[in-house]
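Risk mitigation, structural track. In case the binding assays with NAP fail to produce interpretable data, a predicted complex structure has been prepared as a fallback.
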Amino acid sequence: MALFGRDKTKDTPAKDATAPAAPKRLIPEDNLPELTKFFDGMQEPVELVVFTDPRQNEPYNSFMETLCRELSEISPKITARFHALDSAEARDHGVDFSPTLLLSPGRCQIRYLGAPLGEEARTLIETIMRLSLAKSGLTQISRQLLQELDEKRHIQVFVNPSCPYCPGQVGNAFRCAVERPDLVAAVCVDSSQHPALADRYHVGSVPHTIINETFSTLGLLPEERFAVELVTLKHAEDLLAEQRAAGIAPGDGQEVVEVDVVVAGAGPAGLTAAMYAVRSGLSAVVLEKSVIGGQVTVTPVVENYPGFATVPGKRLMEMIAEQARAYADIHEGEGIDEVKVGRHIEVYTDKAVYVAKALILATGAAWRKLGAPGEDRYFGFGVSYCSTCDGYLYRGKKAVVVGGGNTALTDALHLKNLGVDVTLVHRRPEFRAEKHLQEALAKTGIPTILGTTVAEILGEESRVTGVRLHDVSDGSEREIPTDAVFVAIGLNPNTAIAQELGLTLDEHGYIVADRAKRTSIPHIYAAGDVTGGSQQIVNAVGDGSTAALSAFEDIAHPYWKKGKTVS
Ligand code: NAP
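Fallback model:
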């Protein structure tokens, strides 16, 4: 739901490149009718209690106050109260940071440390509604899990405004807090507004979740996995291993869903495949183990998608997703555990068993790792593969970007724009990135170290302190200090399902698919980055449509295909 339209909240620079201005009006007039209609469904009143100290953290205080005031003006069921940070009310609630927002503090334990910028504003709106309806929105399984909880949980989710994965993880935490207001307290901490708290917990990558001070996870978790880990304070991998040891098989006791086409992956290829499948007359569901958008979502700017001179990757994917949703159900946070191919294709997830006639694998590709000592050790503590997610944490600090392709140069430019002191390290004397990006890089004056590899990522305790560089031509080595290393050295295809099925892969590990996107197993198709090639968004979109049309031909035997009969 585009409640705030474009992310205007984070696009307006003020004191620094990322702080929002304190606008006269925050919620665009255009969005008011939609929001009013949305809040018409409210039942119980919800109270927004804001604490600020004008001497700290402007313009975020004004942003928080304006947002809450405007929300309260939309519905009589939303009230807003404003208190000073040194008030008795602040002491009573243990509030010591400006700005802080508490949601109906008498009824639940949900708070924001820092104004909810960008996508977090959407989470706020959803949470107001959930509180009002006293409905957490958790799945039945998650609710059952939470009923077993018998001791307190304090969740802190550290986020950044442009991180596409963060709102999902905050949503997980807040839904659990709505479900168990007696035991679960949830806090969304904007690391860019509260760097001191982020530093205290060594947050080097977001979303970073800390439960009861002792248990921590990185990244966005599927909701049920989040609920399991919240209740047990154990990582889900360990619990799954315990379940398997106890003989519980995937699919046991789960809902069976019949559908023509299952699409694995909600990047540009998968979403387009779903649209084309449904437009052909097939039913389709998209299963995405993480969030909609794939790699494009974390691409700061896309400048080569026809029709858009320049568009943030996240925005482009939101538009494609909105269009795809009109056709097919898209299930985020629902990864595929197993696929069985027989008379039908059975796709098992932790939520259901899908019995399908075709499977389109659009599982994309994941960041390639350097393999340098220190890379795993400091992942999440200075080593990052996502400048869009984590760049904010290093404003005013030093960062090294490794790589010479489009991603590395786009990342370096994005970081520089955020105010990071960035250096680019590349193993060859020249870049393979588009000329246009090379020219932009040269203009910014970002220092480049060419013909050089990263031999080791150095650090102490929970933070990166530097890199040891290796000069390829003379073998000499030197260390340079840095607070972060952004690795942007290309992608590896996500082929776990393909490998389990025994699909033919090429020598680089990509799925082999013919021009019609058929793979080596009938009724299984592959599209987008997982098939290699030039890995452009436009190609992924084209692949998605081709795969869906081939699935249609194979399932429906259309009359215009000679020699095929209607079955
Ligand atoms: P890429 O084009 O494959 O470039 C990877 C870079 O990392 C290369 O410069 C490569 O060096 C270097 N590299 C690879 N392995 C390395 C290692 N072990 N150690 C050090 N350096 C290493 O990858 P990408 O930049 O991530 O782009 C992937 C695809 O996405 C490309 O097709 C790209 O065009 C596309 N993309 C598009 C956009 C956009 O449309 N806006 C944005 C980003 C990416 P060598 O040059 O020496 O091989």
